[in-house]
Write a structure and sequence with these properties.
Shape: globular
CATH topology of the largest domain: TIM Barrel
Largest sheet: 9 strands, mixed
Distance between the termini: 27 Å
Number of helices: 15
Bound molecules: S-adenosylmethionine, iron/sulfur cluster
Radius of gyration: 21 Å
Structural class: alpha/beta
Low-confidence stretches: none
Helix content: 25-40%
Strand content: 15-25%
Mean pLDDT: 93
Length: about 400
């Protein structure tokens, strides 16, 4: 029996608007359109109230929120009034743990940089800046509207304002020289005392402009062996700068792992509000294991469905099998692995496929933690596919 009482709870808020749409991005992000601040506050509030009811209904016991995460889109463009209202309501309804981590994703434009102090005043204590690339040519290729100097100024200002600063970078794209990348990364890390870094290898996502270009033969992709070289070299450099890699794409100084994302990978409880956001709770009700709440994706639809009272597009109930697949798919992303007690059906660990991967020293179980061996992390997607489809 999986007990809920020791589980953590965090809150994710989705803000779906951006100044422009980047050609690689398939997140639920839309170019800014006119909106009414009061209506958004009302709808977010209705969702928080409804989730409070759902926590009671499913007997989810928890000790305050340990993390809040404003993601997007570009939440640094969110009116402060909305951020402030969400944080006040969430604090009243659920309470905040003493060391609650309250993160917000920011783009490095000068307008957003000027907002950092105000964001801190309303309670944000961790900022994640989408620098994306460290040179102007690559920023142009990625369709970004800021320069590397804008990004550096935003990082400087963030480091003065917050004690916990993270940066997102995209790398390993066709034509990028490994030596250029490693030099840029080293110079950047030497100059900036960051707490956290997310390094994403460029992926070509369906429905993006890059995908259209790729289909037309206008865009090439890097081959997987070369991408693995980028990954290995980056890992070495980050290790030299005292970053611990704790997830496939995420690195943190000791004690600065992103709490919200960790809750998500470790299959804790989280509430998701805003267009397209989803949340998951472990239920203590009979015959229900986990409940997933999916929000309407389109911002206008979401607003119209939540303005009077909260309505989800779907509520899904997980059975043992879907819960275990999800727990493993998420948990194996972490270098520390996932606790085996979170699985309902342990037979997967005793199965033929699992044993095969274990004998090849690709998967291992130690101290009730199931994990992928470090040097195989780069092949995680195919390992998970093999585990469930053979
Ligand atoms: C929600 S987005 C970022 C928030 C913010 N609006 C920004 O652009 O800086 C989260 C991160 O995902 C990464 N990302 C998005 N699409 C990607 C792709 N196709 N390949 C690799 N990384 C991607 C980017 O690094 C981005 O900062
Ligand atoms: S990468 Fe960020 S700014 Fe660009 S479209 Fe996606 S969410 Fe918006």
């Amino acid at each position: 029996m999986i007990e809920n009482k020791d589980k953590l709870l965090s809150l994710y808020i989705h803000w779906p608007y951006c100044a422009s749409k980047c050609p690689y991005c398939d997140f639920n992000s839309h170019v800014n359109e006119a909106f009414d601040v009061k209506q958004w506050i009302k709808s977010y509030t209705n969702q928080l109230l409804e989730m409070n009811e759902q926590l009671l209904h499913h007997n989810v016991s928890f000790n305050n929120l340990n993390a809040v995460f404003f993601g997007g889109g570009t939440p640094s463009l969110m009116p402060l009034e909305i951020i402030d209202s969400i944080l006040r309501t969430a604090s009243n309804l659920f309470g905040f743990e003493e060391n609650v981590e309250i993160s917000l994703e920011a783009n490095p434009s000068s307008y957003e940089k000027e907002k950092f102090n105000n964001l801190k005043e309303v309670g944000i204590n961790r900022i994640s800046i989408g620098v994306q690339s460290l040179n102007d040519e690559n920023l142009k290729f990625l369709g970004r509207h800021h320069s590397s100097l804008d990004a550096q100024l935003a990082v400087d200002h963030a480091m003065k304002t917050f004690n916990n600063v993270s940066v997102d970078l995209i790398y390993a794209f066709y034509g990028q020289k490994l030596l250029h990348w490693t030099n840029e990364l080293e110079v950047f890390l030497r100059k900036n005392d960051l707490q956290h870094l997310s390094l994403y290898q460029l992926t070509i996502e369906n429905g993006t402009r890059f995908h259209t270009d790729y289909k037309k033969g206008l865009l090439n992709v890097i081959d997987t062996d070369h991408a693995a070289d980028f990954y290995e070299k980056s890992n070495e450099i980050l290790n030299d700068y005292n970053f611990l890699k704790y997830e496939v794409s995420n690195y943190a100084k000791n004690g600065f792992e992103c709490k919200h994302n960790k809750n998500y990978w470790k299959s804790e409880n989280w509430i998701g509000i805003g267009p397209g956001a989803y949340g998951r709770l472990w239920s203590s009700k009979q015959n229900i294991k986990r409940v997933e709440y999916q929000n309407y994706k389109n911002p206008k639809t979401w607003l119209s469905k939540n303005i009077h009272k909260s309505e989800f597009e779907n509520i899904n109930f997980f059975n043992d099998e879907t819960s275990d697949i999800d727990t493993l798919t998420m948990g194996l992303r972490l270098y520390e692995g996932i606790e085996t007690f979170k699985l309902f059906d342990k037979s997967i660990i005793e199965g033929h496929t699992f044993k095969k991967l274990q004998n090849k020293k690709i998967l291992k179980v130690k101290n009730d933690m199931l994990k992928v061996e470090e040097n195989y992390m780069i092949k995680l997607d195919s390992i998970i596919d093999f585990l469930f489809n053979h």
